[in-house]
Specification:
With about 160 residues, the chain is an all-alpha fold. It has one domain. About 70% of the residues lie in helices and about 0% in strands. The protein is globular, with a radius of gyration of 17 Å.
Length: about 160
């Protein structure tokens, strides 16, 4: 008789697949160069939803944040790294926050993308400190802060009339 184990092996496989697909944004995190930039770019269509409707943006970013905490923590533990470069769900949340409620115009989305990448790489205070939070919280939180910084600067550019004509 074939041993089928404890009955949970199929569930474990699905959980693993779900968390890896989620954390890597459908595999975009496996891009060999600049996976964070690729993850941010792949997130632009969802960011555009948040740019068009602030309520939708808050719901999507909030849902992805909490899902991302769980997925990032699982994947980091599975691969044995604190913040593996394949995890890019954090970039999606930061990207949405960088353009939330700003309007869907290509130059605004591009500026939000560039600002988010700038702040995500620079990691001004308290981004670096937020990275030290345990598990998935640290992986996600610094990108949330980078997204907030980006949105503030984008808001200034919009208010000053430099964007969004």
């Amino acid at each position: 008789m074939k041993n089928k184990g404890d009955g949970f092996s199929g569930v474990r496989r699905w959980k693993r697949a779900f968390f890896f697909v989620t954390a890597t944004l459908f595999g975009s995190g496996y891009f060999p160069l600049a996976s964070g930039t690729v993850g941010s770019f792949v997130s632009l269509p969802v960011g555009a939803l948040g740019a068009a409707n602030i309520v939708a943006g808050v719901i999507i970013a909030g849902g992805l944040f909490f899902l991302g905490v769980a997925a990032a923590e699982y994947v980091a533990r599975e691969v044995g790294e604190e913040d593996p470069s394949i995890i890019v769900i954090d970039e999606a949340v930061g990207m949405i926050l960088s353009v939330i409620g700003s309007g869907v115009q290509w130059e605004v989305l591009l500026a939000g993308f560039l600002l988010f990448r700038f702040f995500d790489v620079l990691k001004p205070f308290p981004c670096r400190r937020l990275e030290r939070l345990p598990g998935g919280w640290g992986i996600m939180a610094d990108d949330v802060m980078a997204g907030i910084y980006s949105r503030i600067v984008l808001g200034v550019l919009l208010s000053a009339g430099y964007l969004g004509g």
